[in-house]
Amino acid sequence: MDRKHDTRAAYPHFQTIPTRWMDNDAYGHVNNVVYYSYFDTVVNQYLIENGALDIETSPVIGLVVDTGCSYYAPVSFPDRVEAGLRVARLGTSSVRYEVGLFRNDDPTPAACGHFVHVYVDRETRRPAALPETLRAVLERLVAPAETA
User: Fold this and answer.
1) Distance between CA 70 and CA 122 in Å, rounded?
2) Where are the chain's structural domains?
3) Which of 52, 98, 136, 137 is the most exposed place for a label (fewest CB within 10 A)?
4) Which residues of 63-73 are buried (b: 16+ CB within 10 A; e: fewer)?
5) Distance CA 48, CA 100 (A)
6) What pLDDT shows up at residue 143?
7) Pick from 120, 98, 102, 99: which is nearest to 110 by CA?
8) What's the CATH number for 8-139?
9) Residue from 21, 40, 41 nearest 31 by CA
């Protein structure tokens, strides 16, 4: 689904991510691989700040099994990225996050991506049901069907 025309209203959570000089590539814009670090940052910071993830002790951790990104406009240092986050699908042991990356105050995204985590037991690496605390935190991000 083309999300080029998403607006900020489609995302219930935002985090500002400053670009860095080193994010730019030889073409003068943020390199494509850096966008995935922005996805990782907005998802994990949201989970940590809301008490749903302790990176050292959580018994259940999310492993990325699918990801993708569509690019619509360039971002370059010293731009500011506003990363919008929503949940498109919440399963028993998995979640599909969708991220819109907005350049500075632009109303439409410079890029949109997704990120699927399958939650597994930290020790066995076998799929595990989402803990209730995690599920409650993620439910706040569930997008209405028409936007996801």
Assistant:
1) 31
2) 8-139
3) 136
4) eeeebebebbe
5) 20
6) 82
7) 102
8) 3.10.129.10
9) 21
**Measured between alpha carbons, how far is residue 126 from residues 44, 68, 122, 137, 144 in Å?**
20, 24, 8, 22, 30
β-pairing verdict for 60-71 and 111-121: antiparallel
What are 17-27's pLDDT values in tens digits?
999 999 999 99
Least confident of 34-38, 53-57, 135-139: 53-57
Dihedral sign, CA of 46, 54, 58, 136? negative
Report d(CA 59, CA 121) in Å as an integer. Answer: 6
What CA–CA distances, in Å, run from 91 to 68, 75, 129, 135?
19, 33, 9, 9
Model pLDDT for residues 47-94, shown as the tens digit of each residue: 999 999 999 999 999 999 999 999 999 999 999 999 999 999 999 999
Residues in the chain: 148
Q: What is the pTM for the complete model shown?
A: 0.93
